[in-house]
Design goal:
binds zinc ion; 3-stranded antiparallel sheet; alpha+beta; single chain; globular; 3 helices; Arc Repressor Mutant, subunit A; 128 residues
Length: 128
């Protein structure tokens, strides 16, 4: 973890991520912390944690921004190329990082800076 200042609000947000295996949407986080901090504070903390390489974000099928902890050391905004896909369950809404590395191909004469792959379907709890 980098140089981020650990205010109480930052700690509370980090804690929410450390207690779950899944990703959390901005909607859910704003609702969860609405007694403690306002929406723009939540957004600012998420952006700072992403800048610091602690969290990464992606867009779900619902158009919401989702955040999850980065497990890769040395992850930062400018270094998200060895990326993993995300999975969103259509039945229960569970959204998670998949522990699969998808190598991003080199594209001639292009500079690829980010990539995302969202798999949508039914999670292990809903598939049976
Ligand atoms: Zn599910
Ligand atoms: Zn992820």
């Amino acid at each position: 973890m980098g140089i981020i200042r650990k205010t109480r609000s930052v700690k509370a947000v980090l804690n929410a991520f450390e207690r779950t295996e899944t990703a959390l949407s901005t909607l859910e986080l704003v609702e969860r912390f609405n007694h403690q901090m306002n929406r723009s504070t939540v957004y600012r903390i998420l952006e700072r944690l992403e800048d610091d390489g602690v969290l990464h974000s992606f867009t779900g099928q619902d158009g919401l921004t989702w955040y999850a902890l980065c497990h890769d050391d040395g992850c930062s905004r400018s270094h998200h190329l060895d990326t993993h896909p995300h999975f969103q369950c259509r039945e229960c809404g569970k959204t998670e990082c998949l522990p699969i590395i998808i190598p991003i191909p080199e594209v001639a004469k292009h500079s690829v800076e980010s990539a995302s792959l969202l798999l949508v379907g039914r999670c292990s709890d809903c598939v049976s």
